[in-house]
Amino acid sequence: MSNQKKWVFGILAMAICLLLIGYVRVGHVWQKMSDISYPYAKINTNFGRIYVELYPKEAPLAVKAFIQRAKNKGYDGTEFDRIVAGRMLVGGRKVRDGKRGQDPDFFLNESVNNTLKNTLFSVGSLRAKERHLSTSDFFINLQDNDVLDANRRYGNYGHCVYGQIIKGSKVVNKIIQSGLTVPYNEKQSKDRVQILSVSIHQDQGWFLE
Which residues contact 137 (CB under 8 A, 6 or more apart)? Predict the structure, then answer.
């Protein structure tokens, strides 16, 4: 075996060993996986629980707004009220008599400089009518939606992604299969998808709840 091949095999062996003992490469530094902490959200619905990992480094304003609204119980009692073109499951506002309720919070749209993409089961903030702004209403991507990403070349604003579902995709699929449509009427009211609570966690131990 040549020295070059030995060197390559040595690097691969070292990388495998590091992963096996719980290390991962972050930038140019190897860190313990247990030392890398992301906030998590537990979305409790009447269809089951959805667990979302949040990424404040990539979208600090969006994550801050989501966490603040969750801690203020602003999502409690709201609903997943519509599916847009089979692409997005939208929630975060109360629905009464077929009308959406209280206006959301607004903040700068971070989609242009965001490396996160609108991929399957990613979570993002809805863009406002003023496209440079995002809202605290959130959505779950039901497929890869690159049309929702910002176009940096032209400076176009997209819908900012700030999280990813890490457990609960089956719950999302149950919601989709429930026949959720908009607007609601009396016949459909029994199928309403309620967001009972949203809680924020740092410790991964809660994940097994």
Answer: 90, 91, 92, 93, 104, 125, 126
Asked if 47 contacts 174 with a C-beta cutoff of 8 angstroms, the reply is yes
Pairing of strands 40-45, 48-54: antiparallel
Q: Are strands 88-93 and 78-84 parallel, antiparallel or unpaired?
A: antiparallel
Q: What is the DSSP letter of 135?
A: E
Structure tokens at 186: 């009396």
Model-level pTM greater than 0.85?
Answer: no
| Secondary element (H or E) of residue 3 | helix 3-20
Predicted confidence (pLDDT) per residue in 119-135, tens digit:
999 999 998 888 889 98
How many CB atoms within 10 Å of residue 175? 23
Q: 71-110 burial, b for 16+ CB within 10 Å, e for fewer?
A: eeebbbebbbbbbeeebbbbbbbbbeeeebeeebbebebb
